[in-house]
Amino acid sequence: SHLYGFGLMDAEAMVMEAEKWTTVPRQHVCVESTDRQIKTIRPNSAVRSIYKASGCSDNPNRHVNYLEHVVVRITITHPRRGDLAIYLTSPSGTRSQLLAN
Fold it and tell me: Could you confirm whether the keyword Hydrolase appears in this record (predicted)?
């Protein structure tokens, strides 16, 4: 947690888990681009943009089975950055805050 730290950790339990850890295959990069969407952010409202990634399914050698991280590039023009908050939500519902207001 970026806000609260990690708290108390059980080192012995972590070592025991590490001994039976199964690693993922070698890393590969899947890059996808979207069409530029121009949307207006109205005061006191939210703008939602949904993008369904293919996971590079068109290339069997690059298909995504495991995901470690996502890089999002976004361009927003707004007079006050402190008025904005940006979240990324996965298909399973995991919500990550990319920008706090």
Answer: yes
Q: What is the mean pLDDT of each run of 10 residues along the chain (101 residues)?
A: 70 92 82 80 83 77 76 83 86 88 83
For residue 78, the one-letter residue type is H
The C-alpha atoms of residue 74 and residue 87 are separated, in whole angstroms, by 12
Q: Residue 83: left (phi > 0), alpha (psi -120 to 50), or beta?
A: alpha
Q: Are the C-beta atoms of 101 and 95 separated by less than 8 Å?
A: no
pTM, two decimal places: 0.59
DSSP class of residue 27?
P
